[in-house]
């Protein structure tokens, strides 16, 4: 049984979420700016980006206007051409200030931190509870128990945060005031019921729960094989990246559907059920369509998982050592 209190688990997951966002946001800001540079002649609608913790819907400017009038951070014109990731880092930092690389961080922290805290703390509590009912090696539950705990924890965290995600997505996709948003939500509840606040819950569950099950099973299995009951930072970085890569690859078709669904929510329209969307993508593009974007997904998921789990394990180890010193004293 863990010698950490829930408050320590919550503080550990909070620390991990903040550090992950701080590390990953600049990479996604650069990626989005490079994409925006290529959209000059294209139709300007909504697009999605993710910094490793949260998906964000962004609505491009519909007409040419000054930066002060309507261009948000991802649509700011850069006087010179951006030639690749490193070049973009340097030029954006020089011309707009280094703080521009963390644009979009506040909305991530507002929703991602509570979501991550609920998720990781629930996971730890369920995993510890499994010791009472499942036979393992006497001290740790079997790896599949970690996968089960991860899946159940994700269901709970998604359910709690889903209405706030819906609100955030609508506000990011369309410039509306809080007053207008309240009226919109009241109208939505009146017409379709309060359950409509959980629109997008099913595709989110279909993507995130299998990911969590595969991720935590893989991570716990690697811990068991390497005899890492209290993982070192190097092991957590490696195992987190590998486990995230496995889970990210196997659940990519579900991630494609989730992305389509978020764009739909932002545009206030719907194209049918998850099964219908999967069938349409497969009919039009085949297997390749269902696994589109594999490399970019792994480029985001693997480092994000590595940073999150290694920071989480390190912080837990810090609290565990402090508790032991307090006990000795």
Automatic annotation (TrEMBL):
It is found in: Mitochondrion inner membrane. GO terms for cellular component: mitochondrial inner membrane. Solcar repeats lie at residues 4-129, 141-225, 231-318. It is a multi-pass membrane protein. SUPFAM superfamilies: Mitochondrial carrier. GO terms for biological process: mitochondrial transmembrane transport. Gene3D superfamilies: Mitochondrial carrier domain. This is Solute carrier family 25 member 40. Keywords: Membrane, Mitochondrion, Mitochondrion inner membrane, Repeat, Transmembrane, Transmembrane helix, Transport. Its main location: mitochondrion.
